[in-house]
């Protein structure tokens, strides 16, 4: 009976661990029965745990990959906005600029649909989850801690933030 | 001994299946031992299989999500190219057009880095894995079946194709 392979194959080494720790020679028949039933129940319970973990990991894996791929597009969108900023002097009537602006809006909508909301609001309280403050400015017309300028928009939701908005924050005027 | 729960908990129902099928009352002591050892080995083997499946599924899940998120950006890139086509009359010197063209190149490079090569070559043989032919044209200067025009570029590799290139294919001139 003990001649059975404890490890069904080479790759099974880790998988068999749940039971293999107790794979000492067994004593009397009753003890053997108790021991074997215990091993079986442990293996079944571990199988259950592994299957539950798969369900959790699946969503986490997808979200990680979504973050990674979506992040790759942020520099493209940033540069598109830079090209638009440079074109602002050309006037809104330029059909090329209008077309490119529509593409920018489409890119922002695409990120939003993937779960990454654009964060470029001013007048909101500074929130360290969504904002990165790079400078402050004295202001007496807004509450201290108010975002008064967005230097680079952020993208993300409450759960997953692709990157924070880079902002300027108001301080109390002296 | 048979008073033991075969299913460690409610959610364990599916997980316990590997062993539960054989959970009939056991006969003599030797038979019990053989049966229990068999159950244990089956559960351990199943655990091993499940763990191997996780490794395979992980890469498949990531690739699926990568396809899905990257696909969302193709309409954005298509529209950027349309805006550029509309601007072609304005001449290459326009700094806005130059900037947008650089963004287009950056977007194509991003897709390439993610594993989706741009397919917009003419002069290559029609390949149903990468091309979708929407029309043909009689030509006597190229071999029949040659791609002579790309109406919309495709993106993808040999393994994973985001979308085929939409092409016009040469036929033998009558």
TrEMBL record, chains A, B:
Coiled-coil stretches: 33-67
Organism: Actinomadura graeca
Compartments it resides in: Cytoplasm
Name of the gene this protein is made from: grpE
Membership in a protein family: Belongs to the GrpE family.
Top-level lineage group: Bacteria
InterPro entries reported for this sequence: GrpE, GrpE_CC, GrpE_head
Bias-annotated ranges (Basic and acidic residues): 1-12
Name used for this protein in its record: Protein GrpE
UniProt function note: Participates actively in the response to hyperosmotic and heat shock by preventing the aggregation of stress-denatured proteins, in association with DnaK and GrpE. It is the nucleotide exchange factor for DnaK and may function as a thermosensor. Unfolded proteins bind initially to DnaJ; upon interaction with the DnaJ-bound protein, DnaK hydrolyzes its bound ATP, resulting in the formation of a stable complex. GrpE releases ADP from DnaK; ATP binding to DnaK triggers the release of the substrate protein, thus completing the reaction cycle.
């Amino acid at each position: 009976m003990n001649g059975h392979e404890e490890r069904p194959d080479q790759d099974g080494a880790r998988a068999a661990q749940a039971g293999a720790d107790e794979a000492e020679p067994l004593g009397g028949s009753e003890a053997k029965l108790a021991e074997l039933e215990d091993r079986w129940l442990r293996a079944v319970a571990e199988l259950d745990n592994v299957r539950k973990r798969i369900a959790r990991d699946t969503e986490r894996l997808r979200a990680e990959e979504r973050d990674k791929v979506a992040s790759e597009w942020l520099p493209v969108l940033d540069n598109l906005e830079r090209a638009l900023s440079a074109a602002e002097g050309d006037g809104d009537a330029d059909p090329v600029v209008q077309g490119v602006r529509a593409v920018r809006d489409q890119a922002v909508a695409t990120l939003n649909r993937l779960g990454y909301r654009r964060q470029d609001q001013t007048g909101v309280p500074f929130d360290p989850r969504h904002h990165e403050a790079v400078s402050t400015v004295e202001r007496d017309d807004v509450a201290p801690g108010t975002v008064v300028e967005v230097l680079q928009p952020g993208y993300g939701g409450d759960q997953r933030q692709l990157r924070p908005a880079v902002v300027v924050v108001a301080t109390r005027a002296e």
